[in-house]
Batch of 4 targets.
Target 1
Amino acid sequence: MANENINAGGVEAAVAEKGAPLDMSATVRLIEPVKNLLGFANVTFNNAVTFTDFKVLKDAEGNLFVGMPSKPDKSSKTGYSATVRFSDDDAKAQLKDTVLTAYDTAVEKLKARAAAIDADKPPRIADQVEKAGKEAAKHNAERAAPPKGKDKSAEH
């Protein structure tokens, strides 16, 4: 009987928590896009279990979505089968939001790094030469023209 109570209590607890948000965090590794693949995500649940190789993908309309980790499977239509499945649509939606938020954060960090690199980069040599030429022309225009004729004091 004691086992029945424990099992019943466990089922009730599981039913009560269904639909409750999971504690989820994600990190995204951006890659050079390959077709519609933009990056990979690792998702940690309850600071205890990490699943790797979620895919950040873009559909034909440009919308982002999350692909589940998969392994080769010759018997499936696509040649791959998912290794992670969600039975709760709310949890799957939370996963999508978490991964896409991490993707947006990774893209913003990359943009900030690119801007910082551009800001620290010295001007191109051609630009420096052009600027120096303009400054020299301005300086020469402001100078008085040398006197025409010989300077007699230089001869003696």
Target 2
Amino acid sequence: MKIRYLIAAAAVGLAAPAMAQDINLASQASISQQLGNNNYGSIEQAGSIHALASIDQWGSDNKAGNTLFQRDCPCYPVMYPGIYQVNSTNVQARVSMHGISDQANIIQWDASNSRALIAQDHEGQIGHGNIAHIFQDGLNADAEIWQTGEFNRAFLIQGEGRGAVNLGRITQSGAHNTAGMEQFGSGHQGFITQR
């Protein structure tokens, strides 16, 4: 029975049109870095449909991508994405970090029906200095940043190139936190909660 399935799968692969090679269908990629410090993770998915990318990190000073702030304007950093999904449809990106002084960046560029989540908590430590950025360009984008602790920064941009009917949420619990959101286009909803 197994041999028949393998032959059928091979035959389908040979019969597929050449343009199907340019599109990734139902791709999944994940990185899990546990109980360590100064780790780095990055995932790139291009031309994907129904793709999922996730990064999980436990520890301090970990990075899912990198954020370099310019002296003249800390609001617009130079971004090296931890998860980069471009020219895609129905994609999801999730970064979960447990520690202090962590950074996470998600960029979904020219992506419609995209979902992005960054969750940063402190796993029993005093949360301090986490940074989260999400940039989405497309239609029907949904983004959420969730942070606990102190001195955290969250920034969200939706629809910078084109965008409509996007939803953005930032929730921070703790003290001395900073949050910012920019939405370009029409039909958006944005919510910032600090408590």
Target 3
Amino acid sequence: MHSTAHRTHPASKGAHAGKPAHEQSRSLKIGVISDTHDYFDPKIRAIFEGVDHILHAGDVGLPWILLELENIAPVTAVLGNTDTGLPYKETEIVQLAGRKFLLHHIVDIHNPSETLQRRIIRDKPDVVVFGHSHKPFNQMIGSVLYFNPGYAGKERFGHPRSVAIFHCNQTEVRPEFRDL
């Protein structure tokens, strides 16, 4: 099982299939989640209701988490450092609402790995979505938005838990953090 931007949600089967690029660039709501660590918070279903796509930035845990998310909307997911044995890539690129999103679990914004730097230069994403730190992050660096939705796993150590929604179109990506 490999979730990508080309997988369609059963309720919207073929929603973008065969449509010209200008029709695929309509305004979208995109759910953004990371670090679920084997836990699907029941609040996620209501928060992500009506989203067109979901981006999961790694540390998924058991594959059934992604199945739960796919019942809401199509999912693009990447491997996290605890995701051994899952059939996902370390980095994914997905184009939604005329914007390019790069997903990668561990991103050190002050000292990105050479591999990640090359990928960002080559693919020129509008947004880099990451996880790992369990801390929400939202900052433009140059012309790229670096974004971490926060931690969605079980409550521990008093860390705040959150997910996010991108409200996006061809002119903007407006993030909205949502507490769990």
Target 4
Amino acid sequence: MKTPVSVEIDVPHQNALIRFREPHRDEILGTELLEDPNGDDFDVAVERGCFDEIVGIELLNFDPRVVAAAETFARANGLRFPAEAFAQFTAALAGRKALA
């Protein structure tokens, strides 16, 4: 399984970007939204580089359904999903809500 080179989690905006390689400075990436079986869009965007290679997965909204969709997609495509990072994010988010 291909391991991420970076994971960026933005707690205030509740989104995340998992990179499987850093794109080249002048590289143009294609982006597609994943769809669930009901035909609705998940808040998960897949960035593809040259030769349809998956460069990154972006979670545009953070909830269990979105994380599960991203994890399922990653594993189905031979990519390691950083579940431990999302566990930390969930804890940080829960702490933030407790302070509010």
